[in-house]
Write a structure and sequence with these properties.
This protein is mainly beta. Helix content is 8%, strand content 37%. The strands form four sheets. It has a five-stranded antiparallel β-sheet. Strands 9, 10, 11 and 14 form a four-stranded antiparallel β-sheet that branches. A three-stranded antiparallel β-sheet has the order 8-13-12, with no helix packed on it. A hairpin with a 2-residue loop joins strand 10 and strand 11.
Length: 214
């Protein structure tokens, strides 16, 4: 392939592709409204010049604008932070930390929100529209199937297989859904659950100390 040198008029983060939205510079996007957000989403890309070689983002900050249920927006504070899972077309899903820049008034149960991220990468520079998930709360624990949870002597826990022996390990439930649980082990337990443990799902006739021959 032929190579040629290109000199940029400004320094910054270079993206080798263009998508036709480079000329879109929305007025008042830092003072967002639901109508302004809907107007942005309705815009069509412009024709890309045949001599276009890419684009340069000259600052590290970038903005993500979206619409959320007003009930979810009520949990956000302008100037506060939020974690958002962004689905990048080239690298998959990644959770990034954002500042809440602006929150609009509610219209029909929806509010537009402007988030600012101060970290730019090749993925973020190339990003234009994507799916995202607002992480309202995070948990640090072990994810297990609902079928693994047991109650022994009034204590929640799981049975694990250790050297062909069944061992009951107590847990505390941090989060529950229809399919799985997020749990941690109680601080005072003598048998803490570990990431390498083989948790037993759904089997009956289990008890602490039972020998299992595979």
């Amino acid at each position: 392939a032929n190579e040629k040198s290109v000199k940029s008029k400004t320094s910054g983060y270079f993206c080798v592709s263009c998508d036709g939205y480079e000329g879109v510079s929305p007025d008042g996007y830092l003072d967002i409204t639901v109508a302004a957000y809907e107007s942005l989403m309705s815009k069509s890309p412009e024709k890309i010049p045949v001599n276009a070689v890419g684009k340069v983002q000259n600052i590290s900050s970038w903005y993500f604008i979206t619409s959320v249920d007003t009930s979810d927006a009520a949990d956000l504070t302008v100037g506060g932070t939020a974690n958002i899972e962004i689905d990048f077309p080239s690298s998959g899903k990644n959770v990034l930390s954002f500042y809440v820049q602006d929150i609009s008034n509610s219209v029909n149960g929806k509010s537009a929100v402007v988030f600012r991220c101060d970290t730019a990468t090749s993925d973020t520079v190339a990003l234009r529209k994507t799916d995202a998930k607002l992480m309202k709360k995070s948990y640090d624990g072990f994810k297990i199937s609902n079928k693994a949870l047991r109650i022994v002597d009034g204590q929640y826990g799981v049975y694990v297989l250790s050297a062909q022996r069944i061992v009951f390990k107590p847990v505390e439930i941090l989060y529950s859904s229809n399919d799985f649980l997020i749990v941690k082990y109680p601080a005072a337990t003598s048998k803490p659950l570990a990431s390498k443990d083989e948790v037993i799902n759904g089997r009956k006739d289990l008890y602490n100390g039972k020998i299992v021959n595979k």
